[in-house]
Design brief:
Helix content is 70%, strand content 0%. With 89 residues, the chain is an all-alpha fold. It has one domain: Arc Repressor Mutant, subunit A (Orthogonal Bundle), CATH 1.10.10.
């Protein structure tokens, strides 16, 4: 399955399991990009970094970059695992 098809399947299942998550993130962080939102969704689902890279079709460096920008959006993320933060939203 291609990363795009895999993401679409994941996204559909995610929205059923976590209704309103994306809306809450978008409201709290209006400057969030689509890819950062996808990283948040993967973190909320407790996907590993490797699984997230695979499903989004991005490199490890790109994933780290998105983690960095999420920490820029929310300074309270410093020192907190992204997965823990995403569970609280």
């Amino acid at each position: 399955m291609s990363p795009t098809a895999e993401w679409l399947d994941f996204s559909f299942r995610f929205c059923q399991a976590h209704p309103g998550f994306c809306e809450r993130i978008a409201k709290k962080y209006p400057g969030i990009t689509r890819m950062e939102m996808q990283v948040c969704m993967a973190a909320r689902s407790l996907l590993s970094n490797k699984e997230t890279q695979q499903i989004l079709g991005i490199s490890q460096r790109a994933l780290w970059s998105h983690h960095h920008w999420l920490r820029e959006l929310d300074p309270t993320l410093t020192g907190v695992k992204l997965e823990v933060w995403a569970q609280a939203i």
